[in-house]
Input
Amino acid sequence: MITKRMEKALNAQINKEFYSAYLYLSISAYCNKLGMPGCEHWFRIQHDEEIIHMTKMFDYVMQHGGEARLFKIDEPPADFGSVLGAFEASQKHERFITESINELLNVAVEEKDHATQVFLQWFITEQVEEEANVKEIVDRLKMVGDNGGALMMIDDKLSQRSPPAPATANV
Ligand code: OFO
Output
């Protein structure tokens, strides 16, 4: 059974994962407006991944004897200035989420909640991947600048991203 403090912290993270999904859906709409279908697709998959993160945590809270709670989701921005700006917004957000997951683990350690410490390992690893993926794209976009042909090639590559595996609470 999780402690009330742990439950509160996990419920707050569920809200952040929902916001992540909201943010990425908004960025996908922005990419649609820019006429970059590959980027739109990439962010739509990113949105789907965030829903999986949220669902994993939501299910875990209940499996561990807690009460899963849903709170109001903040409105995400709709304009990111450029496709590079959109990916930089994603990079900044993922760094924030990494800090937040690390803080959750600190709470689990302080609460001597070993099951939640194990559960959070999946998220710790996932954040390394999330940050690495977006960094690679940001670096490439910076490299190509305004080169239309190169941007089209990046867009095409991003259109090949595969959908995520379905959610399971078990790690
Ligand atoms: Fe849920 O990892 Fe991104 O935000």
